[in-house]
């Protein structure tokens, strides 16, 4: 544990009324991708527990000088919840800062339960997930009209077993967009599962390493057949999102089914159709 400051005196609380522990999504890496709300909470936090180097920057940049800051990387879940409960006993605002969005692969519930049991109020502030940041970095749309309208957030089985029916092969059978977390070192398993689910060797796959990190982001584009070797060549072994999707590369397609929302013939709540359907150019090249 790496505490930056000695605990300031408790001016805000009596032991009978604990402060709130805010689970804040710090975003994918770029400190500017935290929400305004998350930023405001850091600025008034009495204590911050952050999850490793990924989010330390935001914590140290905006926290008050007397804020107690600790890195959770060497703590067990029990130590983390004990730390959060102790800090909530003495400050009004305690922040648990997590990468991306706290609700994705973030041990949120494991930490909330002991706080609930201790009677400490909690709240969650969403964050920009690395899945969204990776799509943005690569200028890809995860959904595309008439191609796929579905996104699956998943991972391949590592030490954490996958529940029944959620093998990558089973999920890939939908041929929708797959955002695959925590799996860059298991790329062989990823491509084997896509192949077994009927994806062609030429199907595009993009890997984004450290999406949004200023100066460190890498984007590797390949196919089911080539992506593993390309990532190895680029020495990408951590902090990467694998996106497999029939939508990839659509920026360069010459025919595209346009979104109905902006279609001139489509009347919706905010706009009346202005062009008769027959006059519409469909799939403009
Ligand atoms: N809650 C986080 C995910 C934490 S799990 C979120 O919403 O993004 C950690 C995994 O997230 C990594 O193995 C990697 O797959 C992905 N990841 C986290 N930050 C990333 C980034 N900046 N670029 C690409 N992938 C990232």
Automatic annotation (TrEMBL):
* Coiled-coil features, chain-numbered ranges: none
Which InterPro entries does this entry report, sorted A to Z? 4pyrrol_Mease (IPR000878), 4pyrrol_Methylase_sf (IPR035996), 4pyrrole_Mease_sub1 (IPR014777), 4pyrrole_Mease_sub2 (IPR014776), Cbl_synth_CobM/CibF (IPR006362), Siro_Cobalamin_biosynth (IPR050161), Uropor_MeTrfase_CS (IPR003043)
Q: Which NCBIfam families match?
A: cobM_cbiF (TIGR01465)
Lineage, top-rank taxon, reads Bacteria
Biological process (GO) annotations held by this record are: methylation
Question: Molecular function terms in GO for this entry?
Answer: precorrin-4 C11-methyltransferase activity
Record's keyword annotation contains Transport: no
| Domain called Tetrapyrrole methylase: residue spans | 20-227
Q: Which Pfam families match?
A: TP_methylase
Its Enzyme Commission number(s) read: 2.1.1.133, 2.1.1.271
What the entry lists under CDD domains is as follows:
Precorrin-4_C11-MT
Q: Which family does it belong to?
A: Belongs to the precorrin methyltransferase family.
Name-wise, this protein is Precorrin-4/cobalt-precorrin-4 C11-methyltransferase
Keywords assigned by UniProt?
A: Cobalamin biosynthesis, Methyltransferase, S-adenosyl-L-methionine, Transferase
Q: Which organism is it from?
A: Variovorax ginsengisoli
- Pathway involvement? Cofactor biosynthesis; adenosylcobalamin biosynthesis
- Enzyme class per UniProt: transferase
């Amino acid at each position: 544990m790496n505490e930056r400051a000695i605990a300031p005196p408790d001016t805000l609380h009596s032991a009978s009324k604990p402060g709130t522990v805010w689970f804040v999504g710090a975003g994918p890496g770029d400190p500017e991708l935290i929400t305004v709300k998350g930023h405001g909470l850091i600025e008034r936090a009495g204590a911050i527990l952050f999850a490793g180097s990924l989010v330390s920057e935001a914590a140290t940049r905006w926290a008050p000088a007397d804020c107690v800051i600790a890195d959770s990387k060497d703590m067990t879940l029990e130590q983390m919840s004990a730390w959060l409960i102790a800090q909530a006993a003495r400050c009004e605002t305690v922040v648990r800062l997590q990468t991306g969005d706290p609700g994705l692969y973030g041990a949120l519930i494991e930490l909330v339960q002991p706080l609930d049991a201790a009677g400490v109020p909690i709240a969650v502030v969403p964050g920009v997930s690395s899945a969204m940041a990776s799509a943005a970095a690569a200028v890809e749309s995860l959904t595309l009209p008439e191609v796929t309208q579905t996104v699956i957030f998943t991972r391949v089985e590592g030490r954490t077993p996958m529940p029944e029916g959620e093998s990558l092969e089973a999920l890939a059978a939908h041929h929708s967009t797959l955002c695959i977390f925590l799996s860059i070192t298991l790329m062989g398993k990823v491509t084997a599962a896509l192949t077994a689910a009927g994806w062609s060797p030429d199907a595009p796959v993009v890997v984004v390493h450290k999406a949004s990190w200023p100066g460190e982001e890498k984007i590797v584009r390949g196919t089911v057949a080539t992506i593993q070797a390309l990532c190895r060549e680029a020495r990408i072994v951590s902090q990467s999102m694998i996106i497999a999707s029939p939508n990839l590369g659509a920026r360069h397609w010459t025919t595209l089914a346009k979104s109905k929302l902006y279609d001139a013939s489509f009347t919706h709540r905010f706009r009346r159709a202005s062009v008769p359907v027959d006059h519409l150019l469909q799939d403009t090249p």
